[in-house]
């Protein structure tokens, strides 16, 4: 498939993925992990990176050999045919009514903490966020990448400032002895921390927009994952050093409280703005990815349709407008029915894990050699994760079954597999 502008380089790719993985989790998950596993969370991050590594390698291999704006749906199409691909694509899009309103609520919460906005003000922040994403979408993916590289730099700079001002050094960090670790809290912490690495499937949609996808896409994916993992570990070390977790403190208030403790009350708004930008970065890459999925599926069937048209900068602006409109309607509905944030996140998480599983199964069929082995390992890990979260995947299972039955079937087109 041609048409999208190929301009992403390695640094831009790393910025896109790392900010996608950091997102809202960089301010909340380290405190949650410390609350569950205490100092054992220092070991949990390296363990999690090791566990996610096979999944990341499988995604990197799929994106390298089959770069396409369809992302996960394209991989599934090559492995299991067009019907399963359409089901996967619509399954990914079913995240919009629950996942994006949840992210918007979290993002607007930082404005409330910094400026004390009321209900109507928070809704305006959410609307402004969607308009900002639309503005970036008027340009090519490179513009979004450049913005998100800056945001990633701000997040890292804030963590470095906290370490420097607070006197945190690698030598001052007290790693607990492995013999003192308990399996139950470690597993519970890992189950929460896994959501920090949700974003690999969204990044796959951008593979076709790299100047050299075979070389730069897998490198950007793996480096971005390691950068995000390093930032999460550094944040956890800071949270433990300042005992900024547990009790009645909300997880999202952990890092702002450290900033106030070190730099004074006047610095609160700085931490909140960086927190909002981290949320914005995650929202941006997901909505841009959704738009590319809608565009790719429409382009394959009806290339002259309005949704399939590209802007002057060769970006899927019409598809992005449709996605943002759906997001706005969903956010207003969530606000009207007073849906809880936790419920929205749980339903979205089930969808993501299910899509990971479908991509790993696709890798088992499409890839060869060590990449296929990584896909098999990733499949086992995804199945274990689905078992771990149990009934919370019901939304994903029901949506998958309905889409399988309702969507019309089309004839399969074949493509060669790669190793």
Automatic annotation (TrEMBL):
Provide the Gene Ontology terms for cellular component: plasma membrane
Question: Per UniProt, what is one GO molecular function of this protein?
Answer: transmembrane transporter activity
Q: Which cell locations does it reside in?
A: Cell membrane
Topology in membrane: Multi-pass membrane protein
Q: Which parts pass through the membrane?
A: 43-66, 87-107, 119-137, 149-166, 186-208, 220-246, 266-286, 319-338, 344-364, 376-407
In terms of Pfam families, this protein maps to: AA_permease_2
Q: Which InterPro entries does the entry mention?
A: AA/rel_permease1, APC_superfamily
Please tell me where this protein is predominantly located. Answer: membrane
For this UniProt record, give its keywords in alphabetical order, as a comma-separated list: Cell membrane, Membrane, Transmembrane, Transmembrane helix
Entry's NCBIfam families? PRK11021.1
The name on file for this protein is: L-methionine/branched-chain amino acid transporter
- Tell me the organism: Limnobaculum zhutongyuii
Q: Which gene underlies this protein?
A: yjeH
């Amino acid at each position: 498939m041609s048409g999208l502008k190929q301009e992403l380089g390695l640094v831009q790719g790393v910025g896109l993925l790392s900010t996608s993985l950091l997102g809202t989790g960089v301010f909340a998950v380290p405190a949650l992990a410390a609350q569950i596993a205490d100092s054992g969370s220092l070991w949990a991050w390296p363990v999690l990176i090791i566990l996610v590594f096979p999944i990341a390698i499988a995604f990197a291999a799929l994106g390298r050999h089959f770069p396409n704006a369809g992302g996960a749906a394209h991989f599934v199409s090559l492995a299991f045919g067009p019907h399963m691909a359409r089901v996967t694509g619509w399954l990914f899009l079913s995240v919009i009514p629950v996942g994006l309103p949840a992210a918007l609520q979290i993002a607007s919460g930082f404005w409330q903490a910094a400026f004390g906005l009321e209900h109507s003000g928070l809704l305006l922040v959410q609307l402004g966020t969607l308009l900002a994403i639309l503005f970036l979408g008027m340009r090519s993916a490179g513009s979004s990448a450049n913005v998100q590289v800056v945001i990633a730099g701000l997040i890292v700079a804030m963590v470095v400032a906290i370490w420097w001002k607070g006197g945190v050094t690698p030598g001052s960090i007290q790693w607990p002895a492995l013999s003192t670790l308990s399996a139950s809290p470690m597993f519970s912490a890992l189950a929460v921390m896994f959501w920090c690495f949700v974003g690999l499937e969204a990044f796959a949609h951008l593979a076709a927009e790299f100047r050299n996808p075979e070389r730069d896409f897998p490198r950007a994916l793996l480096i971005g994952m390691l950068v995000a993992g390093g930032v999460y570990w550094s944040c956890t070390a800071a949270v433990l050093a300042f005992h900024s977790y547990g009790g009645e403190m909300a997880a999202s208030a952990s890092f702002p409280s450290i900033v106030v403790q070190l730099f004074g009350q006047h610095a609160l708004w700085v931490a909140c703005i960086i927190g909002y930008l981290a949320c914005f970065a995650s929202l941006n890459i997901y909505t841009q990815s959704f738009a590319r999925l809608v565009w790719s599926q429409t382009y394959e069937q009806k290339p002259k349709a309005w949704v399939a048209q590209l802007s002057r900068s060769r970006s899927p602006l019409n598809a992005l407008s449709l996605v943002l409109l759906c997001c706005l309607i969903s956010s207003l509905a969530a606000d009207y029915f007073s849906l809880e944030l936790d419920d929205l996140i749980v339903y979205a998480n089930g969808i993501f894990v299910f899509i990971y599983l479908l991509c790993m199964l696709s890798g088992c069929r499409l890839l060869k050699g060590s990449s296929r082995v990584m896909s098999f390992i990733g499949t086992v890990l995804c199945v274990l994760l689905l078992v771990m979260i149990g009934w919370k995947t019901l939304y994903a299972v029901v949506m998958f079954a309905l889409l399988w039955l309702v969507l019309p079937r089309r004839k399969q087109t074949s493509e060669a597999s790669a190793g």
